[in-house]
Design a protein that fits this description.
The complex is a heterodimer.
Chain A lengths: L1 H23 L4 E5 L3 H18 L4 E5 L5 H11 L6 E5 H9 L8 H4 L9 H5 L9 E13 L26 E4 L5 H7 L8 H5 L2 H15 L2 E4 L2 H9 L5 E5 H10 L4 E16 L6 H14 L2 H7 L6 E2 L32 E3 L2 H20 L1
Parallel strand pairs in A: 1-2, 1-3, 5-6, 5-7, 8-10
Antiparallel strand pairs in A: 3-8, 4-7, 4-8, 4-9
Helix pairs in contact in A: 2-13, 4-14, 7-9
Chain B lengths: L7 H17 L12 H40 L5 H6 L1 H7 L10 H16 L3 H11 L3 H11 L5 H10 L6 H8 L2 H19 L15 H6 L1 H18 L10 H13 L2 H6 L5 H10 L8 H8 L6 H9 L7 H6 L2 E4 L2 E4 L7 H32 L2 H16 L2 H12 L4 H9 L14 H25 L3 H9 L4 H29 L3 H6 L7 H10 L4 H25 L9
Antiparallel strand pairs in B: 1-2
Helix pairs in contact in B: 4-5, 5-13, 6-7, 8-13, 12-13, 19-20, 19-23, 19-25, 23-25, 24-25, 27-28
The chains are: A alpha/beta, B mainly alpha.
């Protein structure tokens, strides 16, 4: 035994020098996974284009599969063939992936750049680090847009998520996400449940029944979307009067495409989005991903992203750097979900709760929808 | 014998021989080489068959490997259920003795603790939670939540043992008490080598020898030995940690407490292996320990642990194979009292199967109604004109499916072309536009359009072969146009209708993209549900069960069709 160990040891020692060299070698081609559309463009503009400019020869392949990230990562894990290198997911999915061991746990201070004033990354990101696997990028909200030209005469334009349930004042069709997140919370809060009690209620049968009863009032009149771009398209086509989507997509339709769409900010659902590194990456690809992350999540890069899309940067130190829209030159701050005038009534998504209850409510919600 | 074969004698002999053969009947006909003709023929044919098989072998193997095997594997998932018994083996074993009235006893909660701590460390508990959640909604959250707290079960005992003698905190105590001699020796060697390598600044990447139990404690302290082995092997697998440097999990102390409580003092005193004094002292003190109610501890983590559904589900789905997915696929469920219907608010699959078949039949019928006249026209026009029209039929066939479906969106939506025209004509009020898309209507329209070529082409090729003289003959005998068509032409075109119907129906029953895009909530098929379970809910077992049922359904309909119409009557040209 001892002899064998020693022999192998020397053999390994002989290889040590080239191995150390190989460690420094980074993969030239990486696959990043994101959500497509305006959001992915903002990531390309703010993160990867500058990174590639600084590291010529690196090729980034984009896969627009974030909405199926959990399923795909589990399938890759089963097939033992990991083709993704960095995945953009919502906070609740990051917690789920971390719980299942499909995402890699990281030491934020070790792998991420500190703020320009030297504050360590973990403090700069603060509460945004909701899981050991989660590297936050942005704060976004799911909120409502409505057609300004379809508001009935003599009625004030909608201002709140609850107006979506008011079919008498605001007739017309709706567009809602085809999953329970946000819809269940809105249904309860608009049924008169207090903000603090919403998640407690959703753990009970009575609460779920109540939420479905509220959603029943608009079930027939609603187009249920699966990608956020769909909701914006439905609004732009005048197919629906009011629809939920991510605030950055609505902003793009309003400011960049001049669609007659207005925002109803009240009870916007705040959520986080960020990177996770799939567990089990080969060393060269992991080295490349780490190198990119150090660059791509620093204070300036996160602030740059806000010039392309109206999502709030996750670093405290990035906020003061947010300025004008890169092409339109308009002030971005008023379009951010965190802007005080937009955030009068904000619903903060309880991602930890959703990580636990997603399976339970998904099966209920999908059955309700199919019936 | 003469050399001439035609001598009269010889001839007679041959004739006689033949007669004898006829009489005997059994005697085999021989081939030129003297072997029986039948065998010889078989041999020649076998060689030919082998050659044919060799020629198609690449294709056959390709199909088996890339088509049949994955499908079989996927369908097999519809009955597989090893995950529960593999991840929670002790709990499943303990539940075998459970009589299902009232909650299980402390033994089961202890077994659950040993399993759960290991599963949580290996990150497998969420998968079991998801698996059980498919059967009983609410399981997933219980497992996920408890996964964070289960490490604390047994902490009270750990504290008491350590307060009794700090040696219980020392990893070395445990290793010497429970590790086998062989393992202890190998481990010591490995540590020495590793230290040596580190001091010499060399890379050392030989993994530590895998922990092995000694024999004596396995008999004396069965639960402790089992829990400790689980601990030692798990930390080595997950974090590459060594039991020689890690304090055991709290669950190991729980196991030790339970073992010592169960074993009488004399048995412990008779033990003479390493750590004897420690054990005897602990055994004497353990009666004075403050006991912990495991059930209460679990109730604190989640009320679900002290309610019946979780244990009933656990028990019902502990077998390595289950009919649960198939039952769920037809809106039934497995309960301790047998098979029951799902609760009202969860029944969707029968409805979806019915809807899928109904809509596929509608689409098939529409295709026949629209396709027949076109095919008739095509086959009766001059070659030039019919070729031109045929290209018009095929053109959409060559266009991307997504483009065609999106085009229907533009046409059918409320602010779309068709509604605009209807409003302009005045048929429909502007504020009351028709909902033509995101419902069943939209799916039927779009899919009829997409599948129409599959109806027209077989119809056309069959109609092409019907000689026009038949209809002319019928007319010359006094038949009206209608009679000539209905009695003479139509029956000859039925094989084409049959082929078209089978093609369109089977294609539409499994269609996915178009209903997903234009079907909305009410116009989706069972295939959309299968896709949902594959890619979103990750309930692959249920998806496989639904897929198997769909496959069986298609085969059954094919069989019915064969009985009624006869598959020989189907012509593709």
């Amino acid at each position: 035994m001892k002899l064998k160990n020693l022999m192998m040891m020397t053999a390994v020692a002989g290889l040590a020098a080239p191995a150390a060299f190989a460690d420094a070698h980074m993969a030239d081609s990486v696959t990043f996974v994101s959500w497509g559309g305006a959001y992915q463009s903002s990531q390309i503009n703010a993160y990867t284009d500058p990174y590639i400019a600084a590291n010529p020869g690196v090729q980034v392949i984009w896969d627009e599969s974030s909405s199926e990230a959990v399923a795909r990562l589990r399938a890759m894990n089963e097939a033992n063939n990991l083709t993704w290198d960095l995945v953009d997911v919502e906070a609740a999915d990051a917690i789920r992936l971390c719980d299942e061991g499909l995402a890699m746990e990281v030491d934020h201070d070790e792998i991420l750049a500190p703020a320009p004033d030297g504050t360590p990354a973990s403090e700069d990101f603060g509460d945004m680090i909701v899981s050991d696997c989660f590297i936050p990028q942005i704060v976004f909200s799911t909120t409502f847009g409505y057609r300004t030209d379809m508001v009935p005469e003599g009625v004030a334009a909608p201002t709140s998520a609850c107006d979506v349930f008011d079919v008498e004042t605001y007739p017309g069709r709706r567009a809602l996400n085809r999953n329970p997140i946000a819809n269940m919370e809105w249904a309860l809060i608009c049924s008169g449940i207090a903000y603090e009690d919403v998640y407690d209620m959703l753990e009970t049968e009575a609460g779920i029944t109540m939420a479905f009863a509220m959603l029943d009032t608009i079930k027939e009149n609603t187009v249920w979307w699966t990608s956020a771009a769909e909701a914006v398209q439905l609004l732009a086509d005048g197919e629906v009067f009011m629809g939920s989507s991510y605030n950055g997509r609505l902003f793009a339709a309003i400011a960049e495409q001049n669609q007659p769409i207005g925002m109803a900010w009240d009870w916007q659902m705040l959520d986080l989005d960020g990177w996770i590194i799939p567990a089990g990456l080969p060393e060269d690809r992991l080295a490349r991903v780490m190198d990119f992350l150090y660059f791509g999540t620093d204070t300036q890069r996160l602030a740059d992203q806000a010039a392309y899309i109206s999502y709030g940067p996750a670093r405290a130190s990035s906020a003061p750097l947010v300025g004008l829209h890169a092409e339109l030159g308009i002030e971005m701050a008023p379009h951010m979900p965190t802007e005080p005038s937009n955030a009068a009534n904000t619903f903060v998504n309880n991602y930890v709760w959703w990580a636990d209850y997603r399976d339970d409510l998904d099966s209920r919600f999908q059955a309700w929808l199919a019936q | 014998m003469t050399e001439s074969a035609t001598s009269p004698d010889d001839f007679a002999a041959t004739a006689q021989d033949g007669a004898q053969k006829k009489g005997a009947r059994q005697a085999p006909v021989l081939a030129a080489d003297g072997r029986p003709l039948k065998a010889s023929l078989n041999r020649a044919l076998r060689a030919q068959k082998m050659r044919a098989l060799m020629l198609i072998a690449p294709l056959l193997i390709f199909i088996l490997v890339t088509f049949v095997a994955p499908i079989a594997d996927m369908l097999f998932r519809s009955v597989e259920n090893q995950i529960v018994s593999e991840t929670f083996p002790r709990t499943v074993m303990s539940l075998e003795e459970w009589d299902t009235d009232g909650l299980p006893g402390e033994d089961t909660y202890a077994a659950l603790t040993y399993d759960f701590v290991e599963a949580a460390e290996r990150r497998l508990h969420t998968r079991v939670g998801s698996r059980l959640n498919y059967e009983t909604t609410g399981m997933s959250s219980i497992f996920r939540k408890s996964g964070r707290d289960v490490g604390d079960v047994g902490e009270a005992y750990a504290d008491q043992f350590i307060a009794l003698d700090p040696a219980w905190e020392d990893p070395a105590t445990w290793v010497t008490l429970l590790g086998s001699q062989d393992w202890l020796r190998d481990q010591a060697e490995w540590t020495a080598d590793a230290t040596e390598a580190r001091s010499a600044d060399m890379v050392f990447d030989i993994s530590e020898p895998r922990f092995a139990l000694a024999t004596a404690p396995r008999v004396l302290l069965p639960e402790t030995a089992d829990a400790y082995r689980s601990f030692a092997q798990t930390i080595a697998d997950v974090d590459q940690d060594s039991p020689t440097s890690e304090e055991p999990w709290n669950s190991v102390y729980l196991a030790l407490y339970r073992d010592l409580m169960r074993t009488d003092a004399a048995t412990i005193a008779a033990y003479d292996g390493p750590g004897r004094d420690l054990l005897v002292a602990a055994d004497a003190a353990v009666d004075g320990f403050e006991a912990v109610d495991l059930q209460a501890l679990y109730a604190e983590m989640d009320d679900g642990w002290v309610e019946m559904p979780i244990w009933e589900t656990f028990e019902a789905f502990s077998d390595p194979y289950t009919a649960g997915y198939f039952l769920a696929a037809v809106d039934l469920q497995l309960t301790p009292d047998g098979i029951e219907a799902q609760p009202e608010n969860q029944r969707v699959y029968i409805l979806l199967f019915q809807r899928t078949i109904f809509m596929s039949l509608m689409i098939m019928g529409m295709c026949v109604l629209l396709g027949y006249p076109i095919a008739f026209l095509l086959s009766n026009l001059s070659m030039r004109a019919s070729n031109l029209l045929l290209i018009l039929v095929l053109l959409p066939f060559w266009t991307s499916l997504l483009v065609r479906t999106s085009a229907w969106k533009v046409l059918l939506q409320q602010e779309g072309v068709i509604n605009d025209i209807l409003v302009w004509i005045g048929l429909v009020a502007d504020n009351d536009r028709l909902a033509l898309i995101n419902n069943q209507f939209g799916t039927i329209i779009a899919m009829t359009h997409i599948l129409l070529p599959f109806m027209i082409l077989p119809l056309y090729s069959v109609m092409k072969t019907i000689p026009p003289t038949y209809v002319r003959a019928a007319k010359s005998l006094g038949a009206t146009n209608w009679t000539a068509f209905w009695r003479v032409y139509f029956p000859q075109s039925i094989p084409g209708i049959g082929a078209g119907c089978i093609l369109v129906f089977i294609l539409s029953i499994g269609y996915y993209i178009t209903p997903e895009l234009v079907g909305g909530r009410t116009g989706t098929f069972i295939s959309n549900r299968i896709a949902f379970h594959i890619s979103t809910s990750l309930n692959w077992g249920l998806a496989a069960a639904l897929g198997s049922i769909l496959l069986a359904l298609v085969l059954a309909l094919y069989w019915v069709y064969d009985r009624i119409v006869g598959i020989d009557n189907v012509k593709l040209g």
